[in-house]
Amino acid sequence: MITIENVLAAEKDIESVWRFFNDVSSIAGCVPTCKSFQVIDENTVDCELRLRLGLIPLDSRARVAITERRDNRHLEARGETEPGEVTKAFGKVGGETRTKLHILLDFEEIGPDKTRIHFQINADAVGQMKRIYESIIRGQREKLEAKFVENVAKVLGARVTIENLPQEISAAV
Q1: Rama region for 138: left / alpha / beta (φ>0; ψ in -120 to 50; rest)
Q2: What is the pTM of this model?
Q3: CB 41 within 8 A of CB 143
Q4: Which CATH architecture best describes the domain 2-171?
Q5: Helices 127-156, 14-22: inter-axial angle, 10-degree rounding
Q6: How do the pLDDT tens digits run along the chain, 173 residues long?
Q7: d(CA 13, CA 72)
Q8: d(CA 2, CA 124)
């Protein structure tokens, strides 16, 4: 299991932040590797993702759905990714092609116009896909995370910063 966890601070009231993270099209549009997406319903989005690992372009598809909302302060989403044709060819991906995602978001009001966002993404990848994800995290995490924060700030119309540095990354065997 690969886990990415971090804390952001948004200079925006908690209700606005809650509404933003409940809109699957807003979030999908902020993911730096998302090339296109299609909203299936108010909870579900399909995304076409693309990034580079060195000189190799990697593509994948993901379906993610919000599965739980609690007290306007907690969101959970679950999803699954599968490699695209280029990733299958260059990544030499065998039968273990699907990766299960579990995303947790907790929101804390830290002032009338400031919200703390704690997020955790767990990716249950195996085999070659696990090695590909670990390489991406090692090589591109900071750049991708910075772009995501920049995109969220732009859409929210508020300053958003990363609170806890250095970032925590773990890969459990």
Answers
A1: alpha
A2: 0.84
A3: no
A4: 2-Layer Sandwich (3.30)
A5: 130
A6: 888 888 999 999 999 999 999 999 999 999 988 999 999 999 999 999 888 777 777 888 999 999 999 999 999 999 998 888 777 776 666 556 788 999 999 999 999 999 999 988 888 887 777 777 777 777 777 888 888 899 999 999 999 999 864 444 333 33
A7: 12
A8: 6
